[in-house]
């Protein structure tokens, strides 16, 4: 049974209310390709008189179909003019962008579109962005991700409300009903020839696979959408647990890396462990593209396994390293980082890997603070060097007899090998005065009242057993 125009409008109202998509008087940028779904979306949002929306049409010409692409842009511009709406047009070279970025045409087009929509949203003071994804698109997406091997996050499908103010008012509407709606009101739309191109996986799923599956279950689309709903609920629960565990487990030492405790990780439920790893990779990498189930399983096995130390390399230059029960998700480039900075005088100093504050004078600082060193001002002179660890370095640890190789100090303190270059070393006259966050040198400890205090602001000192050494 098909929906009438009135019922379809009611369905859109219900969807908007259910997911709290729009408020009265808001501006909404509608992505309009010229096809039936997006044209219907534009018409329907304009018909929601009770919301008094400021509707803006936005169209991207991907430069893939020559005159047909220009036809689409002209159509959208004319439609917006007919309805008295603002229209934003953008021309792009999707093929060139795909080649430059190593993306498929589909992915390149998506990145370009959403980037343009975000710009237009900002132009209109944070307007919502409405895309015309439908019930059918949801079913196809779930099936496509199932074929590719997605877990519950992928099977959750297309969210009704996405990041960056993206909304999908038609996510519960069927394509067939949208066309009936347009025909009833005499509205025109365009057909995109690429929608029949079998080179695109979605097209093969839509035109070949789903018709076959409907022979086994005529309600296959509904079942796939139901799977999406169940997966969304499951993933929301798992993700909430993972977010909590992520906060308990990891220290964010610098942008682009996370340091965690394996003892906190191992007792978690497997589903939460997998989600924690996905979220961790996303925090470091910015996304989870090219990170598959096999990568997550390998990471989990590695962290739970008997191997005391080692490394797993992941796509796009990401690495998971483990040592002494501590693990880090970081980039391969950052694993071998080194730095050397010079501080000429007291003050607050900020460098790419270190930020600190150095003051002179009497102090009431708590000597037990790991982020602070109180030194003898008469023994420490400027300039002070801040360096990363190098082979052969020695210092005289506070409370010990004689000097010790820094490497041996790190080993005895069970500092993971991969973390040693991240410990900032403060030197004066070529001698280490403080192993940042860990131990003051005996020769430079406070003896009188004239103190020089160094406080580490970053990197943060992780809450791990070895870091408590002073």
Could you please describe the fold and organization of this structure?
This protein is 40% helix and 21% strand. It is of the alpha+beta class. It folds into 3 domains: 5-133 and 168-216, 3-Layer(aba) Sandwich (Rossmann fold), CATH 3.40.50.620; 228-335, Uridine Diphospho-n-acetylenolpyruvylglucosamine Reductase, domain 3 (2-Layer Sandwich); 340-468, 3-Layer(bba) Sandwich (Phenylalanyl-tRNA Synthetase, Chain B, domain 3), CATH 3.50.40. The strands form 5 sheets. A 5-stranded parallel beta sheet has the order 3-2-1-4-5, with helices on both faces. It has a 5-stranded antiparallel beta sheet with strand order 6-7-10-9-8. Helix 2 crosses helix 8, helix 4 (94-101) crosses helix 5 and helix 12 crosses helix 13.
Any descriptors?
Uridine Diphospho-n-acetylenolpyruvylglucosamine Reductase, domain 3; 21% strand; 470 residues; alpha+beta; disordered N terminus; Rossmann fold; Phenylalanyl-tRNA Synthetase, Chain B, domain 3; 5-stranded parallel β-sheet
CATH superfamily of the largest domain: HUPs
Distance between the termini: 74 Å
Contiguous runs where pLDDT drops below 50 for at least 5 residues:
1-6
**Biggest sheet architecture:** 5 strands, parallel
Radius of gyration: 29 Å
Percent range for β-strand residues: 15-25%
| Overall mean confidence score, pLDDT | 90
Number of strands: 21
Structural class label: alpha+beta
CATH topology of the largest domain: Rossmann fold
Oligomer: single chain
**Largest beta sheet: strand ordering:** 3-2-1-4-5
How many structural domains can be distinguished in the coordinates?
Answer: 3
SS summary, helix count: 15
Shape: elongated
């Amino acid at each position: 049974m098909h929906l009438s125009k009135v019922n379809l409008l009611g369905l859109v109202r219900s969807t908007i209310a259910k997911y709290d998509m729009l408020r009265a008087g808001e501006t909404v940028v509608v992505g309009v390709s010229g096809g039936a779904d997006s044209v219907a979306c534009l018409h329907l949002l304009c018909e929601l008189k009770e919301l008094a929306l400021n509707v803006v049409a936005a169209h991207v010409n991907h430069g893939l179909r020559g005159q047909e692409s220009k036809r689409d842009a002209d159509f959208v511009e004319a439609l917006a003019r007919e309805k008295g709406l603002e229209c934003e047009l953008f021309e792009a070279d999707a093929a060139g962008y795909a080649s430059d970025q190593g993306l498929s045409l589909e992915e390149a087009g998506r990145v370009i579109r959403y980037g343009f929509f975000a710009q237009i949203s900002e132009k209109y003071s944070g307007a919502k962005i409405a895309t015309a994804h439908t019930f059918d698109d949801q079913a196809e997406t779930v099936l496509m991700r199932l074929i590719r091997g997605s877990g519950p996050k992928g099977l959750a499908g297309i969210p009704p409300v996405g990041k960056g103010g993206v909304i999908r008012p038609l996510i519960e509407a069927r394509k067939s009903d949208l066309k009936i709606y347009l025909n009833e009101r005499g509205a025109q739309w365009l057909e995109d020839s690429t929608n029949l191109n079998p080179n695109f996986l979605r097209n093969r799923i839509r035109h070949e696979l789903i018709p076959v599956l409907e022979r086994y279950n005529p309600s296959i689309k509904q079942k796939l959408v139901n799977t999406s709903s169940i997966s969304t609920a499951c993933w929301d629960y798992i993700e909430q647990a993972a977010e909590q565990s992520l906060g308990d487990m990891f220290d964010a030492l610098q942008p682009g890396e996370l340091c965690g405790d394996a003892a906190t990780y191992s007792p978690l439920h497997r589903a939460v462990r997998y989600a924690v790893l996905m979220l961790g990779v996303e925090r470091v990498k910015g996304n989870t593209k090219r990170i598959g189930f096999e990568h997550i399983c390998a990471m989990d096995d590695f962290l739970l396994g008997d191997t005391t130390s080692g490394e797993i390399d992941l796509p796009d230059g990401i690495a998971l390293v483990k040592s002494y029960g501590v693990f880090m998700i970081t980039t391969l480039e950052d694993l071998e980082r080194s730095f050397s900075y010079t501080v000429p005088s007291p003050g607050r100093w900020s460098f790419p890997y270190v930020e600190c504050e150095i003051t002179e004078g009497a102090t009431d600082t708590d000597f037990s603070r790991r982020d602070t060193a109180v030194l003898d001002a008469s023994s420490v002179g400027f300039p002070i060097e801040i360096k990363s660890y190098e082979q052969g370095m020695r210092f005289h640890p506070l409370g010990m007899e004689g000097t010790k190789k820094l490497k041996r100090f790190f080993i005895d303190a069970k500092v993971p090998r991969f973390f040693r270059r991240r410990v900032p070393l403060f030197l004066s006259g070529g001698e280490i005065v403080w192993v940042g966050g860990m131990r003051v040198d005996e020769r430079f400890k406070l003896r009188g009242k004239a103190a020089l205090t160094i406080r580490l602001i970053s990197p943060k000192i992780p809450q791990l057993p070895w870091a408590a050494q002073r």
